[in-house]
Automatic annotation (TrEMBL):
It comes from Chitinophaga oryzae. Gene3D superfamilies: Aldolase class I. Pfam families: Oxidored_FMN. Keywords: Oxidoreductase. This is Alkene reductase. Its cofactor is FMN. Belongs to the NADH:flavin oxidoreductase/NADH oxidase family. The keyword Oxidoreductase applies. InterPro entries: Aldolase_TIM, OxRdtase_FMN_N, Oye-like. Signal peptide: none annotated.
Amino acid sequence: MLFTNHTIGNTVLRNRIVMPPMTRSRAGADEVATDEMAAYYAQRASAGLIITEGTQISRQGQGYAWTPGIYSSAQVEGWKKVTSAVHREGGKIFAQLWHVGRVSHVSLQPGGAAPVAPSAILAEGVKVVIDATGEGPTGGGIRKEQHSMPRELTIPEIEAIISDYAAAAKNAIAAGFDGVELHGANGYLIEQFIDSQTNHRTDKYGGSLENRLRFLKEVATAVAAAIGKERVGVRQAPLTTLMGAQDDHPEETYIAAAKLLNEVGVAYIHIAEADWDDAPVMSPAFKAAYREAFKGTLIYSGKYNKARAEEALEKGWADLVGFGRPFIANPDLPYRLEHDLPLNIPDPSTFFGGTGKGYTDYARYQQPAGVLA
């Protein structure tokens, strides 16, 4: 079933294998996508769908060094090289639109300002990556710092960020993307509004579950209006505790969110299952509830292999399945999975920042020796 076609909105995919978003921190000056990024994504264009690394919708939305943006004309031009390269290889590609909220550092913010959040709450021990030397992604100058204390957003500022999402979505379409995914997972801004432990507001964006879901609803609605709901997906991580994310009643909260997104009419929900060794397990009943609540496409990612992916498809939990780290080291992953071939092992030391080593030099199956495998 992994190798049958599927349609998201009006986008026809050639298989059910997704390359999910993975931060690689290799953007160039002014957070512009590079030629090497174009090569990286084009190498993996045999995926049914590629979803890019998180791509900030504004300078304020950036939380890590060397991540790409999609708010300037230069950034749009940079992404055009990526989408053109993927499309030449017959692939489909969505841009993941990202605002990190509180998970940032003053050195990355405009004018050295504090990061913004629904509420002024620090996530102790949550670190971000900053450029320690100013030499860019190839300079090797990574330093991890506790994220800076955030300040609470005003309602006019929230409205401005919603407009930033819509503008970024229009930029993505102008750059040639087939659609966009809203990053509503992993403890970043949209999830900070949703989760009860990160949103202590008392106005219309906080308190009740309906109010905590308001920002998600308004962003999704604005982006759908800007580019068409058939081009919009949303990523969620209902059980993750990444970046200090925590909700007191995740099943109630995220099924309500799924029903809301079904009403908005977005094309898909992309569910990131917690993928560390002792992570909480997303139960079959929870997955069945998602299927009942949301009638569009459901994507699951998180430590999937071929057997687990086939099970998810056969049991009706998923329509598409994402394979993250395996795609880093195996640009021809769909071919390897289809033919039960051995996989290259990724080198974690090259995941974030660096050169083409561990990025564009992984071998396809039976390529000549001498490349990283």
